[in-house]
Predict the structure.
Amino acid sequence: MRKLVFIDDDPIDHFLMKHILRGKDYFDITTYTIYGSLVLDYIEEHKFEPEKLPDLIFVDLNMPQFSGWDFLKRMEQMQHEISKDIPVFVISSSLRPADKATSSKYPFVHDFISKPVNGEEIDRIIRAQKVTGS
């Protein structure tokens, strides 16, 4: 079972991602949330059950209360305990090269995607991650 988690505080970005993924069989379960901390709590709770963990995470950097930066820092602290490599893709409207450079320092971050996301970019990422197919 293939699982995607999309973390963003903007409902428009949730809508866009749902639209991009509509009709595609990339994932069996897609979770859309604004609560990155809850995603990390879930990962920590199931860190020894790889079948329950997401196969891919997209996370926005700039969110109130618990930012994408907070998510990346906590994920880094947990990384050595998780029984599965979970690729994380940063999605951001930031045009600052420093944000891209800083996010790339996290070994589990595979790419930095500028908003708005587009279908071709998402298709490329998913194919490269070999998540497709049952």
